[in-house]
Amino acid sequence: MNKARQLNEIHSKWFKDCVCELQKTATQPVPGVGNPEARIVFIGEAPGKDEDEQGQPFVGRAGKFLNEMLTSIGMKREDVYITNTVKYRPPNNRDPLPEEKSACYHWLADELNCIQPKLIVTLGRHALSNFVPEARISDVHGKVLKKRGHLHLADGNSIVLSTEYFFPLYHPAAAMYNGDLRKVIIEDFKKIPEILKNYAASREV
């Protein structure tokens, strides 16, 4: 089975089986989109208003900024895969609760283990905390972290991921309110092509 078909089946399964309480207030689920053969996956925290309405991740203002940054390094959305930790919009865009994230972790893990990207780019401190909970984004943004990926479930169990390289960035939405952070995000983003090139050449990021 090719990855595109496998991803479609993953989404169809979790449309029915996801037990996240946020689905009671959200308009619709927002699964990941993009290239099933992508070497890089971008992960945010949760859908916002525009994403909830359109059913796709990163289609609002933050998504437009993400598109601009992809263009700046010679890439486009079709080259990468973009998703969120939580697949349903939290009311009033509040932070998702730990149990809400845990309820969506199997869905996210299935996406990642299907695609098996070389690099996971976390967008924002909440996305980073899913994989490297001890890290502070102010300390590690723009740096490659090597760590066997795990998603820790609310029941104390965890899901092991095949990807072990993470590249934390500030969330694109932060640039909407902080010009200094916008510059930082742009500079960090420029490192991505070299990171992927080094990985391909040496099997290490």
From TrEMBL:
Reactions the enzyme catalyzes: Hydrolyzes single-stranded DNA or mismatched double-stranded DNA and polynucleotides, releasing free uracil
Leading EC class: hydrolase
Residues making up the signal peptide according to the UniProt record: none
SMART domains listed in its UniProt record: UDG, UreE_C
Listed Pfam families: UDG (PF03167)
EC number: 3.2.2.27
Domain of life the protein comes from: Bacteria
Keyword NADP: no
Transmembrane segments: none
GO biological process: DNA repair
Keyword vocabulary terms for this entry: 4Fe-4S, DNA damage, DNA repair, Hydrolase, Iron, Iron-sulfur, Metal-binding
SUPFAM superfamilies referenced in this protein's UniProt entry, alphabetically: Uracil-DNA glycosylase-like (SSF52141)
Ranges where the Uracil-DNA glycosylase-like domain occurs: 31-190
GO molecular function per UniProt: 4 iron, 4 sulfur cluster binding; metal ion binding; uracil DNA N-glycosylase activity
Family, similarity comment: Belongs to the uracil-DNA glycosylase (UDG) superfamily. Type 4 (UDGa) family.
Protein name: Type-4 uracil-DNA glycosylase
Organism: Candidatus Nomurabacteria bacterium RIFCSPLOWO2_01_FULL_36_10b
